[in-house]
Design a protein that fits this description.
Strand order of the largest sheet: 2-3-4-1-5-6-7
Mean pLDDT: 78
CATH architecture: 3-Layer(aba) Sandwich
Shape: globular
Number of strands: 9
CATH superfamily: P-loop containing nucleotide triphosphate hydrolases
CATH class: Alpha Beta
Radius of gyration: 20 Å
Order of helices and strands: HHEHEHEEHEHEHHHEEEHH
Number of domains: 1
Distance between the termini: 17 Å
Bound molecules: guanosine-5'-triphosphate, magnesium ion
Structural class: alpha/beta
Low-confidence stretches: 1-74, 398-426
């Protein structure tokens, strides 16, 4: 099955908005710092994006007074028109080739690359025990063009070197890309079916709020604007909200907690608001086709693996909701109010995520129960994507022995229900 390119709403998926299942969050909703206006009542086609009032610039975050205004002014060599054209070409190619784009946004260090590597690594590492192989897709653009060549080189580097390093215990370095690129991957199933995904990789600095700009939020990269405007099928949007952005010198990969640095957490939240706002504007006419996923990454740094609460092994929706409200109030308020058309409850998902037990560049080898928990996160996310993009679950078998796998299935059925996913369709 290929993605729906006829501009019709996507078929209903079995994913429900988690807050609809949770009768009440344990903590009362904090009033959003920034008000969201009528987002749910606007007409989708051509509606204005919900607006949000930027918070007052914080003195400690303000750049020097002589700093250039806005991201684009700082990079005079860029040709925005040709970047937009590249994005348009990409959108057309992704569509022609049957790719489901997965747009991963979040500020620097939020865990975007680790998330992508953990998803790919899950299928690579577990492939002997599953019904699916993951391969790098063919180049998306003409290899005689400079942009086509550059993005292909970056995709190959990520899929080969970075993924191998990740699987051998080394976390990725900060992404330093000059332009956004997509990593095309093909899932080849034993029954001959194929699913194609294109994962966005970007430099988190592009999402950092600019406190010296009147708009606060930097413009999206033109390639992404073009994708949102010109891609006619459905897109999965991942908003990456890190549970922590710090790790202290005495932290270990198995116990990475370092606390939440208030400034960087606030930037991470504002960065997501900016990305959602731009996405809403440029995607206004087709937003109803897409799925929106708010991911609280690095969940292992808040809920310690092996703790008696089982908060890591059995992530609870109410914990995710209260964490998002406490730490990402602006971004989560915007997310909740985002207008995605009908069946909204099936197109917005909140979930915790963990790419691995890591601190800085070191990834600890998980023990058996940690591995099981990590696989649960990775499998859940794959199945969200697969059901939304292709109407079927990837559903790789658990790599645990059969007896453990059976009891795991029972446990995860319950967990998935709490996360808003109907059991039995993973
Ligand atoms: N404990 C833990 N740490 C994580 C996890 N994911 C990422 N990290 C840590 O966060 C760091 C940054 O993660 P990246 O995936 O590189 O972040 P990014 O969003 O790609 O950052 P940029 O490339 O700079 O935009 C990693 O080096 C790890 O130390 C996770 O699931 N758990
Ligand atoms: Mg990165």
């Amino acid at each position: 099955m290929t993605p729906d390119f006829d501009d019709q709403p996507t078929p209903p998926s079995s994913v429900r908005a988690p807050w609809e299942k949770a009768p009440a969050a344990p903590t009362p909703a904090a009033p959003p710092v920034a008000p969201v206006h009528d987002a749910d009542f606007a007409e989708l086609d051509g509606d204005p994006a919900p607006t949000i009032t930027p918070p007052a610039p914080a003195p400690f975050a303000a750049p020097p007074a002589d700093a250039p205004l806005g991201a684009r002014a700082a990079e005079p060599d860029r040709n925005l028109d040709s970047e937009y054209e590249n994005g348009k070409l990409l959108a057309e190619q992704l569509q022609t080739l049957g790719y489901h784009p997965v747009v991963i946004v979040g500020t620097a260090g939020s865990g975007k690359t680790a998330l992508l590597l953990s998803l790919m690594g899950y299928l690579r590492g577990a492939s002997k025990a599953t019904n699916v192989q993951i391969m790098l897709g063919s180049p998306l653009l003409d290899q005689t063009t400079q942009y086509g060549q550059q993005i292909q080189e970056q995709a190959v580097g990520l899929f080969n070197q970075a993924l191998q390093a990740f699987l051998s215990g080394v976390a990725p370095p900060a992404t330093k890309a000059t332009q956004p690129f997509f990593v095309p991957v093909e899932l080849q199933f034993h029954d001959g079916k194929i699913q194609k995904y294109a994962f966005l990789e970007s430099d988190g600095e592009w999402y950092r709020p600019d406190y010296n700009s009147p708009n606060l939020y930097k413009d999206l990269r033109p390639e992404l604007e073009a994708l949102f405007r010109h891609f006619k099928g459905s897109i999965s949007m991942f908003y990456v909200a890190p549970a922590t952005q710090m790790s202290f010198a005495d932290a270990s990969a198995r116990s990475p907690r370092g606390g939440n640095n208030a400034t960087s957490m606030r930037d991470a939240s504002q960065g997501l608001v900016g990305a959602m706002q731009h996405y809403s504007t440029h995607r206004a006419a087709k937003r109803r086709l897409d799925q929106q996923v708010f991911l609280i990454t690095k969940w292992d740094s808040v809920m310690e693996p092996g703790a008696s609460t089982h908060g890591f092994e059995e992530p609870r929706l109410e914990d995710a909701v209260s964490f998002a409200r406490d730490n990402f109030s602006d971004a989560f308020a915007y997310f909740e109010s985002m207008n995605v058309g009908d069946k909204a409850s099936r197109k917005k998902i909140l979930m915790q995520y963990s790419s691995g037990l890591m601190s800085n560049r070191v990834i600890a080898s998980p023990d058996r129960s940690e591995l099981r928990a990590l696989h649960y996160y990775h499998r859940t996310l794959w199945n969200l994507l697969s059901r939304f993009g292709f109407g079927t679950a990837v559903d790789p078998e658990a790599v645990t022995p059969r007896s453990v796998g059976n009891s795991l299935r029972n446990i995860t059925d319950g967990l998935l229900g709490m996360l808003g996913i109907k059991p039995g369709k993973r």
